[in-house]
């Protein structure tokens, strides 16, 4: 019997890329770096952040997406309440933060909780209070500093760029994975050669 894996078995959302399902791994304010264990589908504690910083928004991923860093596409969801880990949230995409982590490109989609009246009026990243973006930039540039790892936030871009990045990650997912007759998702043989 196949086991359920949130990355492969949850839909990305019927209105993607404008509104996607975000699966939250880390609540806003956490110092714990939780992430999906890709094999078991469980949430695991990767590490406690070395620096005296905490996540500026709920953090997770968009299911059925894949990026060059071999992970699903990351998403930050702004919401007026704490979103618990492994919660599914309708996330209205408003932009993207492009950064370099080590030597790898690492895009973070920025969204607002579609069902939160206090934030769902934001339609583009340019609508956010400037301090919100400064907090995000500062967090990601600082959170690995004491691990002697460099993260550079290159730029923030609006929702049309975010839509394109989501669509690219959906295509890469389809090019990389397949479901067998039992509904089990596996990597396509040709994708393993890359």
TrEMBL record:
GO MF term set: inorganic diphosphate phosphatase activity; magnesium ion binding
Task: Note the InterPro entries from the entry.
Answer: Pyrophosphatase, Pyrophosphatase_sf
The reaction(s) annotated as catalysed by this protein in its Swiss-Prot or TrEMBL entry are: diphosphate + H2O = 2 phosphate + H(+)
Record-linked SUPFAM superfamilies: Inorganic pyrophosphatase (SSF50324)
- UniProt keyword Plastid present: no
Q: Which residues bind substrate?
A: 33, 47, 59, 143
Q: Indicate which residues the UniProt annotation says bind Mg(2+) 2.
A: 74
Entry keyword set: Cytoplasm, Hydrolase, Magnesium, Metal-binding
Primary location recorded for the protein, binned into one broad class? cytoplasm
One Pfam family assigned to this protein is Pyrophosphatase
What CDD domains does the annotation carry? pyrophosphatase
Q: Name one GO biological process term.
A: phosphate-containing compound metabolic process
Where found, per UniProt? Cytoplasm
Binding sites annotated in the UniProt record for Mg(2+) 1: 69, 74, 106
The terms describing its cellular component in GO are:
cytoplasm
Query: Domain of life of the organism in this record?
Result: Bacteria
Q: What does this gene product do? A: Catalyzes the hydrolysis of inorganic pyrophosphate (PPi) forming two phosphate ions.
On subunit structure and binding partners, the annotation says: Homohexamer.
Protein name (record): Inorganic pyrophosphatase
What species does this protein belong to? Hymenobacter daecheongensis DSM 21074
């Amino acid at each position: 019997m196949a086991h359920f894996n949130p990355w492969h078995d949850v839909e990305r959302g019927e209105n993607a890329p404008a509104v996607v399902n975000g699966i939250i791994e880390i609540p806003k304010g956490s110092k714990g770096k939780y992430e999906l264990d890709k094999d078991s589908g469980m949430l695991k504690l990767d590490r406690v952040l070395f620096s005296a910083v905490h996540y500026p928004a709920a953090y997770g991923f968009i299911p059925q997406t894949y990026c060059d860093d071999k992970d699903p596409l990351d998403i930050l969801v702004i919401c007026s309440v704490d979103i618990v880990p492994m919660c599914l949230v309708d996330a209205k995409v408003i932009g993207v933060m492009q950064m370099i982590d080590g030597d790898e490109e690492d895009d973070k989609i920025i969204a607002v909780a579609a069902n939160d009246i206090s934030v769902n009026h934001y339609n583009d990243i340019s609508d956010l209070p400037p301090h919100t973006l400064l907090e995000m930039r500062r967090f990601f540039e600082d959170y690995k500093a004491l691990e002697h790892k460099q993260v550079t936030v290159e730029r923030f871009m609006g929702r049309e760029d975010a839509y394109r990045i989501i669509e690219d990650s959906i295509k890469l997912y389809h090019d990389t994975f397949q479901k067998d007759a039992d509904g089990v998702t596996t990597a396509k043989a040709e994708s393993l050669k890359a």
